[in-house]
Amino acid sequence: MGTEARAGRRQLLVFTSVVLSSLALGRGAVYTSEPDVRVPEDKPAKLSCSYSGFSNPRPPSYADRVTFSHSGITFHSVTRKDTGTYTCMVSDDGGNTYGEVSVQLTVLVPPSKPTVHIPSSATIGSRAVLTCSEKDGSPPSEYYWFKDGVRMPLEPKGNRAFSNSSYSLNEKTGELVFDPVSAWDTGEYTCEAQNGYGMPMRSEAVRMEAAELNVGGIVAAVLVTLILLGFLILGIWFAYRRGYFDRTKKGTSSKKVIYSQPAARSEGEFRQTSSFLV
Length: 278
Fold this sequence. Notes:
The structure is a single chain. By secondary structure, the chain is mostly beta strands. Helices cover 12% and strands 33% of the residues. β8 and β9 (98-108) form a beta hairpin. The termini are far apart. Residues 1-28 form the signal peptide. This is Junctional adhesion molecule A. Its main location: other.
């Protein structure tokens, strides 16, 4: 039997929930009794592969990290980088019979503490985006949000406690979007990451304040800007009336040069033909 394992390759075949999966070309067939293998990191993993209908299969070589046998390959110790789809391919010496089967290997790694980005304040009526992520979990984590210690449902309008809020929550990406922000959205927010392996991990709680737009402050800032601009214009006008700009012009010195073209003269006649005034 020959087997070829390729780490990191994305899944090409989709297996249904059956005990035995097989793919055969010609008169040979290749089988696996476990198409989806889940193993904790740093533990051994067995990828099963068996065949029938091959007279003399050709075995290829592989790295020293695995052991080949007539029933598949065994990883001595898997890492999170080994997660991927592996394909067992079998062919006889003549190459007339060929078969293959794929096995999905998922190396289980618990999630780490997620990092969050939560604005400290948000304007009522505007759009606010809260994000949550962690990069260690395998399989990838799903994310759940909590407000003041209470888990937020996917559909706020269907929950009496959150019916006054308008938000969308994506458990896959960890994004929580308020559109629009309401006064009720003020509170402490926490994100939790979990992937079904190990303990769920929570972020630090961060408070977000939902506040009205400060129209009075904006108007006051505009008025102050206009007043300062008025004082500047008045100062320039006062300086002009006092003649400060004229004195500056008089105080500057300049040099003038006058040059005249030589006039026609007769031979032997001499007179000044050009003059310079400095």
